[in-house]
Design a protein that fits this description.
Length: 243
């Protein structure tokens, strides 16, 4: 059966000399795994790999047979052309990181319009952002946890200054288990959780603090989703912010 849908490119693996397997999140069928032939090469029909750069917003037509997990791509085109993500090294690194996080966290092969709209809107916002870009991925992780079902159940306060990330709650004192952040890191987590994208520049963070926050959010994610461990794009992101 042939299907057509909008999709978000997340991750690719080269397959043979001229093909690749593309992992995308689609509007109509959730997570999809696509076999893409003629991904590389000089022929007119080749070069499809360019459409699957991380977070590319695309239209795909593909074949899906029964319960097969790997679909075959028939055609692909650009849904939204970016003005800055492909050309800005910081935004490219953020896109690579976010693409990998979404690839590792969303496995459902069924439509989720709320999730798709959040991802699509966030990506388009990243493309047009001019300030607060270095905090975008922090806010993205904070808000993505809401759609994944484990957004913290309350807010940081002076009375509850410790974030227990095992239970997703700010509490008044250290818990008996080790899965919590100290007061300083908990307050920073609380600030990011309450910051919308359009106020990203208000988070005044240096490289060291930002790097610690990323690791803290990933630790929080790992409690709920084991596959988030060992994010390979994280060193690239860290290097970009060091430069």
């Amino acid at each position: 059966m042939i299907h057509k849908t909008k999709a978000i490119a997340l991750h690719t693996i080269k397959y043979g000399d001229s093909s690749l397997i593309a992992y995308v999140y689609s509007e109509s069928h959730g997570r999809l795994n696509l076999m893409v032939h003629s991904a590389y090469g000089r022929k007119k029909s080749a070069g499809k790999a360019i459409f699957f750069q991380p977070l590319s917003l695309i239209n795909i037509i593909y074949y899906h047979k029964g319960f097969q997990s790997l679909c075959k791509l028939k055609d692909v085109s650009t849904e939204v052309s970016f003005s800055s993500i492909p050309f800005d090294p910081v935004k490219r690194a953020i896109a690579l990181f976010i693409g990998e996080v979404v690839y590792r966290t969303i496995r459902e092969e069924e439509p989720n319009p709320t999730m798709y709209n959040y991802l699509e809107n966030s990506i388009q916002l990243l493309d047009v952002m001019h300030s607060g870009i270095s905090n975008f991925h922090l806010i993205f992780l904070a808000q993505l946890s809401r759609y994944l079902g484990f957004f913290p159940g309350n807010n940081w306060s002076e009375a509850k200054p410790i974030f227990d990330y095992k239970n997703g709650l700010f509490i008044h004192a250290q818990p008996l288990h080790p899965l919590f952040f100290d007061k300083e890191n908990s307050k920073l987590i609380g600030q990011v959780l309450q910051t919308p994208f359009h106020e990203a520049e208000k988070l005044q963070l240096n490289h060291k603090v930002r790097a610690q926050l990323i690791n803290n959010f990933l630790s929080f994610y790992q409690v709920h989703i084991e596959s988030v461990s060992n994010i390979k794009s994280l060193p690239i992101l860290s290097q970009v912010f060091e430069e």
